[in-house]
Amino acid sequence: MSRPIRAIIDLKALRHNLAVAKRHAGNAKVFAVVKADAYGHGLDRVLPGLTSADGFAVLEFDSAIRIRDAGIDKPVLMLEGFFGERELRRFSELSLSTVVHAASQIDMLVRVKLSAPVTVFLKINTGMNRLGFSPDEVADVCNTLAQSSNVLDIVAMTHFADADGTRGIDWQMQSLNRATSSQDLQLCAANSAALLRFPESHGAWVRPGIMLYGATPFSDTTAQQLQLRPVMTLQSQVIAVQELAAGDCVGYACAFEAVKPMRVGIVAAGYADGYPRHAPHGTRILVGANRVQTVGRVSMDMICVDLSTLPDAGVGTPVTLWGDGMPVEEVASAAGTLNYELLTRVTKRVPVTVSD
Ligand SMILES: *Cc1c(COP(=O)(O)O)cnc(C)c1O
Fold first, then answer.
1. Which residue has the least CA distance to atom 4 on ligand 1?
2. From CA 206, how far away is CA 31, in angstroms rounded?
3. Of 83, 193, 194, 245, which cross-links 201 as Cys (Cβ 3.0–4.6 Å)?
């Protein structure tokens, strides 16, 4: 036996979620976004579940190499583009499509000698105000790119700031359409939220990330309501039980003090595994098939759960921190963070198994 925590990656759920994304995408092609080691699920682990994606989007160069090394020759989009000429030449050798968001990248692109031309996703800043050319620069930039023998094709790209929120995307779509009205360009704009809610944003390519992993991009719609299934389940077990009397406290700083006798289970999972330290007393957790609550503070290697209502639970009882039966969104919102952050932060000491 070893410490009982583990993450289970469900490839059937992943295939199901990709099918949901493709159904929403209609005629648009789907880049499966697999940045951040596939949102913490492990790039090499998820690739077999994403064989029906039309392409992949990453921003880490080593991830692009791993995709090519896996024998995949579909389009791979580099979401922040290249950071130097050497990297750009490697993009060309590996047939990677590249975002171009800055004048310095254009300068490099027209100056280098590439072994083969690359497809450029021209990033247009329509309101996110992080990366991209302003709409009135687009015509000039397109002219420059069109004259370069290093450029195979140009796709107009933007990113939405509030597709999951109340502002929506209209204001950015208007800006995008104005910026590209004089050009004949394919469009690539939608993240998961826009893919699910705004068909008018779909264009030629969509870029869903979070939904593929069975998590919701919205705060007002659950993954289940979107017909998505969790891909990662983080599981552990109760490894000890304490019978507390009124006045006993648990854990560091005696942050929790029992007001009445209670049974507390100690679970092998802590912030060094990726469970959020800021999850407060009372965060929902699944013990066996029962939703109960955490007790006191999260420590590095352990959390405590209230077993008062579960007399049959004891050492060895399985605990689901999030995933199947316990939406990661509930833990995230209790801890004041996002499903995205929890999924990408499971630490490397947690063993991972793939189920297929
Ligand atoms: C991460 C990312 C996405 C995917 O966003 P989700 O909200 O996870 O669907 C799409 N486009 C860009 C540019 C990104 O960086």
1. 209
2. 6
3. 194
Q: Give the Cα separation of 160 and 188 in Å (integer).
A: 11
Checking if the pLDDT of 48 tops 90, the result is yes
Tell me the three state secondary structure of residue 353. strand
Residue nearest to ligand 1 atom 3, measured at CA:
191
Distance 189 CA to ligand 1 centre (A): 9
The pair of structure tokens assigned to 202 is 């779909």
Alpha carbon 285 to its chain's center: 22
Which residues fall within 8 angstroms of residue 259, CB to CB, at 6 or more apart? 246
User: Quick check: CB of 208 below 6 Å from ligand 1?
Assistant: yes
Which residues make up the CATH 3.20.20.10 domain(s) of the chain? 11-213
Mean pLDDT of all residues in 315-324? 98
Domain with CATH 2.40.37.10 in the chain: 232-355
pLDDT interval class at 18 (50, 70, 90): very high
At 345, give phi and psi (nearest 5°).
-115, 10
CATH for 232-355? 2.40.37.10
pTM of the model: 0.96
Q: Report residue 182's pLDDT band, with 50, 70 and 90 as the boundaries.
A: confident
Distance from the alpha carbon of residue 206 to the mean position of ligand 1, in angstroms: 10
Helix (H, G, I), strand (E, B) or coil at 334: helix
Q: 230-273, pLDDT tens digit by residue? A: 999 999 999 999 999 999 999 888 889 999 999 999 999 999 99
- Tell the CATH superfamily of the 11-213 domain: Alanine racemase (3.20.20.10)
